[in-house]
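Need residues for this backbone.
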């Protein structure tokens, strides 16, 4: 591995170059591994998040949210049904979305985006996905219009999901990350 210094706009920048004929990184394999590990990590994250939500609801008296079911109904073009008939749809959207999104965090970890900073970034991705789906279907409202308490509770639960998912994905990720593997020879 070699590096050279370049000056551009008065700032020092490092440009890494490979000086050898090492094996190429099998990108498809690394992405596939990241997806598979991330799905498992997402399942762990949503399990911990859901447990935390249930504890919080017992302490605060906050009722279950049926926003996941309302959003899924709109995405599928299904007629609205009463909340009492939405339990399975609600659970499916709540867990399914979290498990599927875990694949993204698994790919992040496989690529070397790990640790608390990566999990903080993933928190934003999780919140953005929820808000995009809820708002594009007309079910939600932008978070800055929410009561402060609702916003704090939602961000806290999504952060728990993101950091647990991240911890599991990071622990399962292949070492060294592909960006380091490409430079080790």
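Answer:
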């Amino acid at each position: 591995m070699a590096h050279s210094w370049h000056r551009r706009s008065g700032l020092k920048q490092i440009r890494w170059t490979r000086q050898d004929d090492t094996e190429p990184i099998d990108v498809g394999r690394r992405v596939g591994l990241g997806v598979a590990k991330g799905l498992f990590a997402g399942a762990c994250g949503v399990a911990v998040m859901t447990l935390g939500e249930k504890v919080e609801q017992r302490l605060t008296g906050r009722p279950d949210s049926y926003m996941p079911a309302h959003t899924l109904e709109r995405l599928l073009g299904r007629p609205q049904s009463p909340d009492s008939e939405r339990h399975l749809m609600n659970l499916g959207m709540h867990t399914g979305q979290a498990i599927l999104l875990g694949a993204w965090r698994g790919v992040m970890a496989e690529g070397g985006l790990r640790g608390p900073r990566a999990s903080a970034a993933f928190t934003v991705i999780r919140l953005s996905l929820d808000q995009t789906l809820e708002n594009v279907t007309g079910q939600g409202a932008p978070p800055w219009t929410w009561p402060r308490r609702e916003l704090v509770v939602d961000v806290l639960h999504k952060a728990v999901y993101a950091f647990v998912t991240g911890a599991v994905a990071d622990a399962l990720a292949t070492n060294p990350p592909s960006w380091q593997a490409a430079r080790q020879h």
